[in-house]
Design brief:
Elements lengths: L2 E5 L2 E4 L12 E6 L2 E6 L5 E4 L3 H26 L12
Length: 89
């Protein structure tokens, strides 16, 4: 599962061919012992948990990079190489 971004201890990943479980464009986040899945379109936390401050950082990052995330999603469902997305600064 490729890492597409990392910032403030958060690791953002996208699986290839990952359309069955959540049925919408999404990505996975790891932060220490926490794991979560976020919807790209809405920024909604679909599964898992993150500390509130980290969840807000991820949601702000989604707002800034939604188009990049959707472009990577289209590549991921086709099994193609993904692009790195700038971290939140």
């Amino acid at each position: 599962m490729p890492v597409i971004s990392m910032f403030f201890g958060l690791i953002i990943r996208m699986y290839f061919f990952d359309t069955d479980r959540h049925h919408e464009p999404h990505f996975h986040v790891e932060y220490g012992e926490f794991e979560a899945v976020f919807a790209i379109q809405s920024g909604e936390l679909l599964v898992g948990d993150l500390p509130t401050a980290k969840r807000r950082l991820v949601q702000a990052w989604i707002e800034i990079h939604r188009e990049d995330l959707l472009a990577d999603w289209r590549l991921a469902v086709e099994g193609k190489e993904l692009f790195r997305i700038d971290p939140l600064k």
